[in-house]
């Protein structure tokens, strides 16, 4: 027997899968941003992670309040308005996060400038932990070249080639670090897109369930009609006829008997 999935079940699956994928992508982008100190703001990746469960809760809450607002109570109406406002705020925040993620992707000149500024900030503050973490992750030395602001930093006991000599890495960090930043930004953007997809699926799902409930409520009080067997119906008609005939005779008796008694009484008085 072939397995069939109706539209409602499919929308349920899309809503859950998109929400889970968005949460995973957001968490990965947050972890990558924090681990390798990418120029992408950490709060952007954090919001991309939290936007999925927040959106799911907001959609479910708005649906519950919408159903309860049918009672037209002031409290339910107030909560329905609040959930609608939160829903719009979530949409605005998601759009901002997606826009920032794209800003760290295009154009390439801006992305390169962000990476340059981030590395320069680490170098000026002598943040050896940050630069060393990037170099160890990608097995590289320096930013633009093997000797470009690499760790170990140049001093009296270390030259420009200290990283190359001590660690043995033979490539610069700019290309792999930029690719890592691009992949992370795409994760943030995809997380927001999956949130919007889950939102669309939930709206479509709510519309289908509302239509189904309306149809059921419209058919809630069907008109019942008694269907009898023809023979039974004829017997009922005959019984009704007998009762009507007996009723007619009884009525006639009630009508004519008093008149008859009155006439006999008058005749007796005359005699």
Automatic annotation (TrEMBL):
<dbReference type="Pfam" id="PF00335">
    <property type="entry name" value="Tetraspanin"/>
</dbReference>
<feature type="compositionally biased region" description="Basic and acidic residues">
    <location>
        <begin position="240"/>
        <end position="254"/>
    </location>
</feature>
<feature type="transmembrane region" description="Helical">
    <location>
        <begin position="42"/>
        <end position="65"/>
    </location>
</feature>
<feature type="transmembrane region" description="Helical">
    <location>
        <begin position="7"/>
        <end position="30"/>
    </location>
</feature>
<protein>
    <recommendedName>
        <fullName>Tetraspanin Tsp3</fullName>
    </recommendedName>
</protein>
<keyword id="KW-0812">Transmembrane</keyword>
<dbReference type="GO" id="GO:0016020">
    <property type="term" value="C:membrane"/>
</dbReference>
<feature type="region of interest" description="Disordered">
    <location>
        <begin position="214"/>
        <end position="271"/>
    </location>
</feature>
<keyword id="KW-0472">Membrane</keyword>
<feature type="transmembrane region" description="Helical">
    <location>
        <begin position="186"/>
        <end position="205"/>
    </location>
</feature>
<dbReference type="InterPro" id="IPR008952">
    <property type="entry name" value="Tetraspanin_EC2_sf"/>
</dbReference>
<feature type="transmembrane region" description="Helical">
    <location>
        <begin position="85"/>
        <end position="106"/>
    </location>
</feature>
<keyword id="KW-1133">Transmembrane helix</keyword>
<dbReference type="InterPro" id="IPR018499">
    <property type="entry name" value="Tetraspanin/Peripherin"/>
</dbReference>
């Amino acid at each position: 027997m072939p397995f069939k999935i109706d539209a409602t079940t499919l929308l349920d699956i899309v809503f859950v899968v998109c929400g889970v994928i968005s949460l995973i992508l957001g968490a990965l982008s947050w972890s990558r941003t924090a681990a390798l100190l990418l120029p992408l703001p950490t709060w952007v990746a954090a919001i991309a992670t939290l936007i999925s469960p927040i959106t799911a809760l907001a959609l479910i809450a708005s649906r519950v309040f919408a159903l309860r607002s049918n009672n037209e109570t002031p409290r339910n109406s107030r909560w329905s308005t609040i959930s609608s406002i939160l829903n719009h705020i979530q949409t605005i925040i998601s759009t901002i996060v997606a826009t920032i993620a794209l800003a760290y992707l295009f154009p390439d000149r801006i992305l390169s400038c962000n990476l340059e500024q981030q590395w320069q900030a680490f170098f000026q503050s002598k943040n050896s932990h940050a630069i060393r973490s990037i170099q160890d992750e990608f097995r590289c030395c320096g930013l633009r070249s093997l000797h470009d602001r690499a760790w170990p930093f140049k001093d009296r006991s270390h030259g420009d080639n200290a990283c190359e000599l001590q660690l043995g890495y033979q490539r610069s960090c700019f290309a792999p670090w930029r690719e890592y930043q691009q992949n992370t930004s795409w994760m943030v953007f995809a997380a927001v897109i999956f949130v919007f997809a889950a939102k669309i699926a939930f709206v479509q799902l709510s519309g289908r369930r509302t239509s189904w409930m309306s149809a059921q409520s419209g058919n809630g009080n069907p008109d019942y009609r008694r269907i009898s067997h023809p023979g039974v119906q004829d017997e009922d008609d005959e019984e009704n006829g007998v009762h009507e005939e007996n009723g007619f005779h009884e009525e006639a008796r009630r009508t004519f008997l008093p008149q008859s008694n009155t006439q006999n009484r008058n005749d007796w008085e005359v005699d």
